Each structure stands twice: as structure tokens, then as C-alpha cells.
Amino acid sequence: MNLAFGYVRRSSYKQQENNSVEIQKAYIQEFAKRKNLSVPEEFIYVEDVTSAYAKRAKQRKELMRLKNMMIERGIDKVIFYEESRMDRTGYSFVLDFYRPLQDHFPNLEVYSTTSDTPFDPSDFRTKITLLLYRQESEIKSERAIASLTSFLNNEEKLRPGSKCPYGYELVNKMLLPNEDADIVTFIYYMQSWGLSMLKIAAVLNEASIPSPSGKMWRPSSIEAILKNKVYTGTLTWNVHKGKEPKQYEFNDFNEPLVDDFLIKLINANTKLQKKYGRLDTPFTFLNKLFCRHCNEKLLTQNGSTTREGKKYDYQYYVCKPCNYKLDKTAVHNALLPIVLNHIETTVSGAGVKHIALDYLDQTNRSIEKNIEKAEERIDILISKGSIAEEQNDNEYNSLVKSYHQQEANFLEECVNKQQVLDELREAVQQDLIFSRFKSTLSSRLGETETRLFILYFVDQVMISPGEEAKVLFTDNMLEIFDLCLTGQSTE
Ligand SMILES: [Zn+2]
């Protein structure tokens, strides 16, 4: 008889006893028997799920141990209790578990006890089922799946030739990057350095790169690309049901042309811009300068005057209460070398990666603690809820429900932050962040680039006439990614 491995998850939720480890194991044994497979007890891996919420597959210790053991023992069959045990985060199961095994085993068979046919990630239905696990329960119904399947099957009809998104071509109903893909990536890259759509269009036109319609690029054609989520691998599905059309999004649907880190950076830039004002300004220290005497924020003054037929521009940083002006160029000449020197030292220091990873780990630990506490509170709320229900206390029950909702929202925020954190960790490890600054520092900086550097690294500058300026730097530039929890947890 052929040997196979098994995998079950032990949930920390006391309420989920109907999914207990024993029941899951029994299902696996029964399934194995039907398939004429043998699963020795010690071949069943049990994962303690500390969090009921999503985690990338490769962060699951037992799953990774299982993968290694299958390779070591040369056993190419494994049975999961059900699909949702395989992957709640969507596609990471395929990337972290299935694909590496597939490289070893040409006849890999990954089963779930709910289906007789082995798991096949290229199968449309499998893909959809996995994707739906992350969605609201309302679209988990058979009918919704059928409707989504037909929507996707009709993709070709919906997007004939010219309507296929720029940078892709349609091959067997799949979007594959074509020769224009690099242009799309470049457009996002330019945006990540703060370039406006007008400027991006100008750069492309100057390079004689034709627009999607074969003409000149215009800001609107750039905007259409920057707004299209297809480039991050997301499928947008519009459902017209009833009065209000609903939109569903599925991540990791097609090959992305823009990596997540760039999107995170662009979002962070947008937030910085909201907080500190425009990126394309000659006042690159805008809203970062404070008066050493009165601690007020310096304002800007911008104008021009004509003397003897010649036009003079004047640009000043101004302290209104103390009534003085500082010449913009003089301020920049004094401050920029200090700032760039600091950045250079920071990003090229040997420990920079280490410090960044430490910061991320620390933040992650605090998020994890918060998740743990929130889950404990939810456990309590669930038992309070069932008591309220038993006693028909509707008022109390609805109060409990609203607390539960708050906790669930908070957990969602935690998980989202953890996802950002994971992506940042990967970006740090792959040297995407700091090399980005290094390579830019060596070339002449444009206005928006300088401005972004200042926003990332300078906390504030204390300045006044005749005195040396004091530059205060940020502790860690990763703070721009806003990893701290804002959600209010209820005690
Ligand atoms: Zn002042």
C-alpha cells in the first residue's frame, strides 16, 4: 500500500470542537482507506494555530516540516482535512508549499478530504475556491462560484484584443506580460519617486515611447494605468445584483507587473504628501522647518519682482511671529549636505539591514500580542453571547455582538499590518529599500526626489537667523509605512 502524509490544524478557538484534531484525523484515515493509501499516525502533522487569522503558508512551522519530510522520505502524497486548512491567505499555499514540492515530485498528489481529485492550482475552480476563502461568506455559495466562473470564462469576449490591459496579452484566457510590461513598471517606478502624471507623460513622450493608443502620452492615460489594479495582480469583479453594483477583488490573480513594495511606498508617499504638503515644490523643506526662538513652523513666501526690466524671483522661509525671512537657496545650501550625508551613512552602513529587521520584528511582536489579547476577548464574548442567547436577553446579546464586531475589525487591522510587515521584511531582505536610496544618491537629485528624502529621514529642523541649524532625524525611515496599530481595542 502507498504511504501518504496528513495535515491537520488545531484551532485555539474552544468553540470549534466539531473540527477537533481527532475528527480531522478520522476523516483523513477514512479518505486514505478509500484511496488505498496508508497514513501512519506519526505521518500526520498537527499545526497549532495560534491565530485563527491568516498567515503565509511558509510561516506555518509544521507545514514547512511536512514539506521537508515528504522530500526526505520521497513520499509524494499528502492529505489535508479540507481546503481551508491548506490556505486561508489565498495563494501562498501554492507558492510556499505546492510549487517547491512539485519541483521534486512530478506526480505530486495533494488531496483534501472533500474532493476525490488531487489539488491542482491551475484548475480554475480550485483557484476560485481558494480565492473565495478570503471573501465574505455571501459569495461562497455554489451559485456565486458558478457566476464567477462564467464571468472569467467570458473574459475573452469581455476584453477583445485592443481592450486587453496595456502591458499584457491574453493567452488561453490568462493575462501574460508582453513587451510593454516594462513601461508599466517604469510608470509606477516614476510615480514612487513623486513624479506627477504630467511629468511621467513628458518623460515617455521624450523617449518616443508610443502610448497604448499609439499616440502621445497624456496625464489621463498615465492615470488610467496607475489606477488599474490589474497591474498588481488583482482581478476586479463587478456584480450587478439588485440596485447597487458590488465590486469584489481577488488578489494574486494574474502575474503582477508592479511589486507590492512599490505600491506600499506610493501609498506612504501619498500619506506624507497629505501631512506635509506637495512633493513637487521648490521648497523641499516645506513644513519641516521650525523657528528656534518661538518654535513656530516656518511658512513660505514665493514671488517675483521686476527691477529695471529684469525679473527677479524671491523665495523665502518666513517666521511670522519673529518677523524674519530666510533665503530659500541659502537654507537649502546649508541643510542639504547635512541631510544627504546622514542618509548616505544610514543606508550604506553595515548594520542597516539588521536594524530594519529588528524594528520589524519588534513591531510584529507587539502586533502579535495584540492579536492574542483580542482573541482572548473574543472567546469571552462568544461565551457571554451564548449565555445571553440562552437567557433570551436580546439587549445584552446585541451589545456583545457589537463588541465582537469591534474586536473583529481590530483583528483585521492587525492582520493587514502584519501583511505589510511581511512585505517590508521581504523588501529589506532583498535589498529593495536601501539600494533604492544608494543608487539615487549617486545621481543628481531632482526636486521631488530631494523632497521625498527629506520627508523619509528628517523629523524636523530647528532654525533661526545667524545660528547654526539643528537637524533632527527620524528614528527609522520604515515608520513612514505606518505599522503601528491605530484601532481602538476594547478592554
Ligand atoms: Zn520665530
From TrEMBL:
Domain annotation Resolvase/invertase-type recombinase catalytic: ranges: 4-157
One Pfam family this sequence matches: Recombinase
SMART domains: Resolvase (SM00857)
Record-linked Gene3D superfamilies: Putative Large Serine Recombinase, Chain B, Domain 2, Resolvase, N-terminal catalytic domain
Keywords: Coiled coil, DNA recombination, DNA-binding
SUPFAM superfamilies, per the entry: Resolvase-like
Ranges in coiled-coil conformation: 357-391
Signal peptide bounds: none
Protein name: Recombinase family protein
Origin organism lineage: Bacteria, Bacillati, Bacillota, Bacilli, Bacillales
